[in-house]
What we know:
Layout: H1 3-6, H2 16-20, E1 25-30, E2 35-39, H3 41-47, H4 65-78, E3 80-83, E4 87-89, E5 95-104, E6 111-118, H5 119-162, E7 166-171, E8 176-179, H6 181-187, H7 191-194, H8 199-203, H9 219-225, E9 230-238, E10 244-256, E11 259-269, H10 271-297, H11 319-331, E12 338-342, H12 348-357, E13 366-370, H13 376-384, H14 400-403, E14 408-412, H15 419-431, E15 433-434, E16 443-444, E17 448-453, H16 457-462, H17 468-474, E18 477-481, H18 491-506, H19 515-523, H20 529-543, E19 552-553, E20 556-557, H21 569-586, H22 597-601, H23 605-615
Helix pairs in contact: 18-20, 20-21
Amino acid sequence: MNEASIVRADPDLLDATALALLPEAAIVIETATDRIVQSNLKARRMLAGETANGHRFSDHVEADLADFIVFLDEVAYRGEAWTRKVSLKRGNGETLAVEIRGRRLAAGTSLVLLMFLDLEELRRHERATETEQLQREGLMGWRRAQEFFSELEFQNQLILNAAGEGIYGVNTKGQATFFNRAAQEMLGWEPDELLGKPIHDVIHHHHPDGSAYHAHDCPIYRSFRFEHVARVEDELFWRKDGKPIQVEYVSTPIYNQKILAGAVVIFRDVTERKQSERKLHEALSEVAELRDRLEQENAYLQEAITNERAHHDVIGHSPAIRQMLARIELVAPTDAPVFITGETGAGKAIVASAIHKDSGRKRRPLIQFRCGSISRRSIEAELFGQFGGADGTAGDNSGALELAHGGTLFLEDVCELPFDLQGDLLRALQDRKFKRIGDTHSRNLNVRVIASSTKDVEQEVAVGRFREDLLLFLSVFPIHCSPLRERPEDIPELADHILGIACERMNRRKPIVTERTMNALMSYHWPGNVRELRNVIERAAIVSTGSKLIVEIGGEPTTRDTGRTVRTEREMQQEIRANLVAALRETNGKVAGKEGAAALLGMKPTTVYSRMDKFRIESHEWELR
């Protein structure tokens, strides 16, 4: 059965007969519209609800919608995939654990074939097979199990006694069957005092707080009752003299001719080691506190995207903003890489910050790395760090990857990253390890990656400036930031929010935004998006000395509340200062050169520096936020 038998010449015309012949429950959905195109009888019985053509399939996976979207993305890229992370919601409200296998049907369409395997039914089949096998073994199998321990003790006693760890065996009733010499010495019991007795009641009967430790809660008993290996790193065994020792142990089920015979327990006394670990943990906690304090004090280590001078949150109520917030809510709790696209100034950094703040990594740093803001010569060192003495420099330098360990790395304008470094970055992210420049030691890496780009990344891949495999790694969950001109209904809320922050920072009374001024803001096309709006509002907050806000858009001021067209010398100087700050913000503080503030203003660099001194402009006023 292949996709040609499911989809005929017309991709939208499905062969219901072929679908019905599939051995599993199967549904064909159209991912673009979230509608069920076709389903077989087994699928309709499994879902016990609305599976007719045209109904929404997402209603059946609403509890795991985020994982289902990631699964569909994998199907779209690979052609086929499977997952056990998504549960199905049946029409009667029940939840069904399944394995979903997906396959993209005809190329150029959004049709996907989904097949479902009931995991509980698979487990019942496995249990029935095991039960049938045990029944066939009969009484002779159980007798072989009893003989097994006697033979094991006889043949292996010398080996067991030579081991440094304590070793003992229990049968399926929990009775001790053998003890090696190390176990006897650590616990103080003689073999005849333990053999044939319920071992849990003798050495494992109470918790450290004195409460009873029931046998049905014991991992050792569970290991052979449920036939799995139990590893425990911190429990107590009780000696004959009544003193406890801290132990770590492994309990492993053992079999005789495929018949469960009991378990072997290997343990060691870790009392002294645990005490040392506690002291080390206390010391490390103190070091961590000092390190966190230094990170907070050092602006380089945690170059925050948001601070008290920036508008932290995604502001607006337009359909585009609501859709973006829904996608942020879906992806933030996961560690999935996110790729944010949008024009310059559209708020990509704010979206990255919102994802980080809603994630499990919010207590760790969000490190912003501007891939095109520094020279090619130093970008590798800034990203990967540098080992002491490399390239003639002194001391060790941590890179963005190392600073983001445990937190989130935001790769801003990732398409600007030099092509030869893209492979190194991908390898570090995939292997979760990296090396500083000049170092031979690999360092572990645990980061959540968020990337952004103002360019058409698909076009960058097509022309060979960006690696396709890096794009596939980064774009597990894409988010697009719509330009401000496409959502003018958000401007009033944004303007009010920015104005409030600006006035609070400048310790000024918040002026009134008149209807005429707001209409002017909403009718402007905003080529610089939210960043340009922020510049305009902050500049207006400086020059508006009256009760109403005076904004200048595109070089044209709105009507002043005083009715005057002439401005005072003080007001002119304030506007000159605000314009200079805006130019420095646009160039990220760069003054000289073709892309510097001097060229932008049509001045000499020396004139710009002179005015910066005159107006006492500080770096925090123009730093990008």
